[in-house]
Design goal:
The complex is a heterodimer. Chain A is of the alpha/beta class. Chain A has two domains: about 210 residues, 3-Layer(aba) Sandwich (Rossmann fold), CATH 3.40.50.300; about 60 residues, no CATH class. Chain A is about 35% helix and about 30% strand. The longest helix of chain A is centred in the middle third of the chain and has 16 residues. Helix content of chain B is about 75%, strand content about 0%. The longest helix of chain B has about 30 residues. The mean pLDDT of chain B is about 95. The chains are: A alpha/beta, B mainly alpha. Chains A and B meet through helix 2 and helix 3 of A and helix 1 and helix 4 of B. The complex binds adenosine-5'-triphosphate and magnesium ion (MG). The site of adenosine-5'-triphosphate has 11 residues of chain A, from helix 1.
Chain lengths: ~280, ~250
């Protein structure tokens, strides 16, 4: 399959400190790929190298077949960007800004349609400076999409979204995927990665420590967690044989005429795996 | 060209919406012209009618305030807030963007000059410029020179907060010693020496040759054109090396 993004041995240093120590990564065209990792792991650095903002110090990178270190206007017409932090002209209105950006691209989407897509219909004529944090972020998403790009980079796109807006953004991203677009996103929300990503990579201190589909990553770990309260004490059991353990537990409790207070049986989540892989000193 | 006009229109809209820039670069010269012009308009400065002297001075003031101070402050504020970074992520070529930003200051200067000429003629009796066509060229040369210097200085400024302080500290003193309001000859010697290297002094000489009756036009101030070209080139060299699209990396 054609890869939208290919990275081999990517390295980057700020001053003397190396923050990316040779990343390898492929993102096939048409995939939603999530980059996870703790603060400072190197997600933004990686994404901004691929967008053509920062120069790499080693390794190879190809984005849509182009070296992003030589980003041209044609290349930028094919990508959409939500930066982790940036700004737009505060004195323009939402509608004016989308019109302005639409004009930069050869075949843009209709700005009015984009306003609806990100749920800013009521703010269309509002000046950017009057938007709330989450509304600004939605505008950022709209600006990333208005050029109708093939590949979209989303660096923490839903940070600050309320739950309804987040669901809506997920629908938008799924919609893009259905149109055959490729999406590289970073997020600190595990349920977001789980809901959207075909595949993901977990980055820690500039190295990839796991990569695969959410299902594959969790399949290797079949542990189930059982919790209940015994008196004042919280009991946590981790087991690969939940049926047997649970049967024994409930049988004992029945025999003793006790209740297993606050009983919970939980499958391991992506979050558990993430926390384990990114724990300090591992 | 379509892209340039698209961006130029946006930059114009942004300019007129930023009340501060519009006040300092467009409204203030008109206010000065009326207020100061009615105080000493009919006395003589350097053998020229006061209001005519002042009109020429304020035409030059508009150029430095718009193309140098306004441009530099606007760009630094946009750079530090992250607007420039976002713009650079679009297919708009950086050269088209900068051309439109500078083009927009030329539009402002042209409209401002027109307004000043009208007020000069009908309110403070400064007369019409003797060589209007050459005046337009003089203002264009000045704007090009100061825009290059404005781009250059953005590279030396580190923060949005510091930008107006530093820029004002440079251009306001220049305005006072370069002969906008009164003759350079009335300054103490060491200030005259500074005035001798100030690009604004040369722009004003050029402008006065085109405004006052009996002025010799561009041909009468070739050394001023050379000085402005020199400053402009120096600014361009620094700008090309120092201009940044993002806040400084740590
Ligand atoms: N411009 C810069 N100058 C110097 N160091 C930087 C710069 N940008 C990032 N770093 C450092 O590089 C490392 C990786 O930063 P990066 O922003 O890529 O992390 P991240 O994974 O995106 O983190 P977060 O989740 O907080 O956004 C951090 O240690 C950071 O301090
Ligand atoms: Mg980041």
């Amino acid at each position: 399959m054609e890869h939208a993004i290919e990275i081999r041995g990517l390295r980057k240093s700020y001053g003397r400190r190396e923050v990316l120590h040779g990343l390898d990564l492929n993102v096939p065209a048409g995939e939603v790929f999530a980059l996870l990792g703790p603060n400072g792991a190197g997600k933004t650095t990686t994404v901004e190298i691929l967008e053509g903002y920062r120069e790499r110090d080693g390794g190879e990178a190809r984005v849509l077949g182009v070296d992003p270190g030589r980003a041209t206007s044609d290349f930028r017409a094919r990508i959409g960007i939500v930066l982790q932090s940036s700004a737009v002209y505060p004195t323009l209105s939402v509608g004016e800004l989308l019109e302005l950006f639409a004009g930069y691209y050869p075949s843009p989407r209709e700005p009015g349609e984009v306003v609806r897509l990100v749920g800013l219909e009521e703010k269309r004529d509002a000046r950017v400076r009057t938007l709330s944090g989450g509304q600004l972020r939605r505008l950022d998403l709209g600006l990333a999409l208005v050029g109708d790009p093939e590949l979209v980079f989303l660096d923490e796109p839903t940070t600050g979204f309320d739950p309804a807006a987040r669901r809506r953004a997920w629908e938008t991203i799924r919609g893009l995927r259905a149109l055959g677009k490729t999406i590289l996103l970073t997020t600190h929300y595990m349920e977001e990665a789980q809901a959207l990503a075909d595949r993901l990579a977990i980055l820690r201190d500039g190295r990839i420590v796991a990569t695969g589909s959410p299902r594959d990553l969790l399949d290797g770990h079949t542990t189930v967690e059982i919790r209940y309260r015994s008196g004042v004490e919280e009991v946590v059991l981790e087991t690969e044989e939940p049926t047997r353990v649970l049967h024994e537990l409930t049988a004992d409790a029945l025999a003793a005429g006790r209740e297993l207070d606050s009983l919970q049986v939980r499958r391991r989540t992506l979050e558990d795996l993430y926390l384990e892989l990114t724990r300090d000193g591992e | 060209m379509r892209l340039f006009l698209h961006e130029l229109a946006a930059q114009q809209r942004l300019y007129w919406r930023s009340r501060e820039a519009a006040f300092f670069t467009f409204v203030m010269p008109l206010v000065f012209l009326v207020l100061i012009g009615s105080v000493y308009g009919s006395s003589e400065v350097d053998g020229i009618r006061g209001s005519t002297y002042l009109l020429a001075g304020l035409l030059g003031y508009s150029v430095i305030a718009t193309a140098f101070a306004g441009l530099a402050i606007t760009l630094v504020v946009r750079r530090e807030s992250g607007v420039l970074k976002r713009v650079r992520g679009t297919p708009l070529p950086t050269t088209t963007f900068l051309a439109a930003v500078i083009g927009s200051t030329l539009v402002v200067i042209a409209l401002g000059a027109l307004a000043q000429l009208l007020v000069g003629r009908f309110v403070v009796d400064a007369g019409w410029p003797s060589r209007p066509g050459e005046l337009a060229v003089a203002l264009l040369v000045g704007a090009a020179c100061f825009a290059a210097l404005g781009l250059a200085i953005t590279g030396l400024i580190r923060s949005a907060e510091g930008s107006s302080a530093l820029v004002n500290a440079i251009y306001l003193p220049l305005v006072f010693i370069s002969g906008v309001f009164f003759s350079v000859d009335s300054l103490p010697g060491f200030l005259q020496a500074v005035a001798e290297i100030s690009p604004l002094t040369y722009l004003l000489r050029l402008v006065r040759e085109c405004v006052v009756a009996g002025g010799e036009g561009l041909g009468g101030a070739l050394e001023a054109i050379a000085a402005l070209a020199g400053w402009g080139l120096a600014g361009l060299v620094v700008a090309v090396r120092m201009f940044r699209w993002e806040p400084r990396e740590a």
